[in-house]
Every structure is written in structure tokens, then in C-alpha cells.
């Protein structure tokens, strides 16, 4: 006898949405079903949408949960409801993640991760922030927060205030909101300068070697990832990891106190946001042009 599929319906902002298989386990170790996931997306929506709406969106879909097959989706899934807006760029019809019904529609399709382009849809040349990606070469890297703190302190010594964000997986990104209108290439030159300095200062910890097989156990100081056409795990995206971790901006005091990537997940992120708000949105914009001009004079 065939089992009748579960189908529910919710109305959000005047839009009726069908919810299929709400009891399906998506993160089984964390006890997160599809219904729980959608509830958490509602709580995350003001923050996740804020950091995705003006970017090109790539999602990663896990139709049967994090331990089964997955695929990347750039083009808008079909059939597309009328309320879902899209924008075409480079021959790809991207979903515009600009409202809660769209987010929940993607969530119902088991889009568990949301990755946003560094470049803006209306200005692909000048980003709003500068990003350094600290990428461990090992699956377990107990030094990642130490590395983030060292780079943050070095940037502070240059007069640059930065914010650390967990990837939700194994790495940490340092984000610098920009007051200057700089190009990706200009920011790369600053990243190369800082990266090479950090590898000279701590050759046991950092490398700018792109090939993983040549890195050993060192953490990759990736200043090349921040570029037009490339993406980042969006702030506040869930990740397809057993602990249902969420990519989360942190305060430096939290890192000094021993915060770990696994501490921030779908089951506690709402309470954190109620308490601290969006640390990334509140971070002050920085002027990097003086450093760029210094490097050009060298």
C-alpha cells in the first residue's frame, strides 16, 4: 500500500505555500526536520535576506537530508511561482532572495545552504566589503580561531577594524565593510600584502600556497577568493553539517573567550540574534585607500 505524502500549507505575507514532507529529517543528529528548518528560516530571514538580496544566489540542495545526494543550484528552480523574482546575469537566471515567501519556497525545496556572490548585482566591480578567507588544510583545525585573532590584530595595527565570521564549516572569514569605492583588484593587492606578511611572521601557521597538497597542515590565507563571480557562505546561512551549524559573525571578545564554530547552530541562533543583533550590519565601514596608496608608493 502506497504511503500518502505529507503536504501542509502556510500563508506568509499573503502568499500560500505548500510544505511537502514536513517531518522529513534534514539534520538527523540535531533533530532538525524540514518543519523545524522552515521555522528557523523564518527567524533568520531578516538577516539572511539582508545579506543576499543584492547578490547572485547559489543554493545547495539536499532533497533527502545532509547525508544523501546534493547538488548546487544557480538557475531558479522550475516551476517558478509568480511571487519569486529572478535576475539574469551571465546567462544564469538567479533567484532574487528579497522576501520571506521566496526564502521559505527555497527551504521547502531543501535548499539548506545559501551562498552569495561577492559582487553586487548592480555593481559587479566595486564590492561593499573586503574579505579574507582563512581556510584550514585539515578537517579538524583547533588553531583556526587563533589564526583569525592574529590576522584581526594585524589588521588593527594597520588601522583596519575587521569582523570575524565563521563559515559554519571549518573556516573563518575576516570581513571589512568598506567606506571607499575600491575594485576587487585593488583589494587583492592589499590582501596579498597582508597575507605574505602573515606567512613571514608565522610560517608554521599560515600559507598563501593555492595547492592544498603543498600546504601541509598550515591554514590557507586566501585573498584570491574575494573576486567578481565567486561566492561566500552568506552570513547566517545554515550549513549541511551534523551539528546544523550556522555561519555567524562574532565579536573579538567572543573569540578571545574561546568561541568555536560548532557553538553557533540552528537551535540557538535566534536567541543570539535577539541578544546581539546583526554584528556585521553594525560594523563600521573602513577606509582602505590610504593603505592602497602606501603600497603603490613602495
UniProtKB/TrEMBL annotation:
It comes from the Bacteria. The keyword Hydrolase does not apply. Residues 33-279 form the DNA ligase D polymerase domain. Keywords: Ligase. Its EC number is 6.5.1.1. Gene3D superfamilies: DNA primase, PRIM domain. InterPro entries: LigD_pol_dom, NHEJ_LigD. One of its GO terms (molecular function) is DNA ligase (ATP) activity. This is ATP-dependent DNA ligase clustered with Ku protein, LigD.
Amino acid at each position: 500500500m502506497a504511503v500518502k505524502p505529507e503536504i501542509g500549507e502556510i500563508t506568509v505575507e499573503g502568499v500560500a505555500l505548500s510544505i511537502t514532507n514536513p517531518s522529513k529529517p534534514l539534520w538527523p543528529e540535531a533533530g532538525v526536520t524540514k518543519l523545524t528548518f522552515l521555522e528557523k528560516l523564518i527567524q533568520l530571514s531578516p538577516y539572511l535576506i539582508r545579506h543576499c538580496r543584492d547578490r547572485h544566489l547559489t543554493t545547495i540542495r539536499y532533497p533527502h537530508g545532509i547525508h544523501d545526494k546534493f547538488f548546487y543550484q544557480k538557475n531558479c528552480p522550475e516551476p517558478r511561482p509568480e511571487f519569486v523574482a529572478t535576475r539574469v546575469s551571465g546567462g544564469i537566471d538567479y533567484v532574487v532572495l528579497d522576501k520571506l515567501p521566496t526564502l521559505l519556497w527555497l527551504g521547502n525545496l531543501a535548499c539548506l545552504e545559501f551562498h552569495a556572490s561577492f559582487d553586487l548585482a548592480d555593481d559587479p566591480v566595486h564590492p561593499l566589503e573586503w574579505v579574507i578567507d582563512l581556510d584550514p588544510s585539515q578537517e579538524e583545525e583547533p588553531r583556526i580561531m587563533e589564526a583569525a585573532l592574529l590576522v584581526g590584530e594585524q589588521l588593527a595595527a594597520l588601522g583596519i577594524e575587521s569582523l570575524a565570521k565563521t563559515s559554519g564549516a571549518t573556516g573563518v572569514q575576516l570581513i571589512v565593510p568598506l567606506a571607499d569605492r575600491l575594485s576587487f583588484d585593488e583589494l587583492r593587492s592589499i590582501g596579498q600584502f597582508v597575507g605574505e606578511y602573515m606567512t613571514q611572521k608565522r610560517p608554521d601557521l599560515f600559507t598563501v600556497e593555492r595547492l592544498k597538497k603543498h600546504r601541509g597542515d598550515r591554514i590557507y590565507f586566501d585573498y584570491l577568493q574575494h573576486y567578481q563571480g565567486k561566492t561566500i557562505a552568506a552570513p547566517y546561512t545554515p550549513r549541511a553539517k551534523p551539528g546544523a551549524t550556522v555561519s555567524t559573525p562574532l565579536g573579538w571578545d567572543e573569540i578571545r573567550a574561546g568561541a568555536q564554530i560548532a557553538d553557533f547552530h540552528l537551535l540557538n541562533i535566534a536567541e543570539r540574534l535577539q541578544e546581539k543583533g546583526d554584528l556585521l550590519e553594525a560594523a563600521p565601514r573602513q577606509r582602505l585607500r590610504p593603505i592602497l596608496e602606501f603600497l603603490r608608493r613602495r
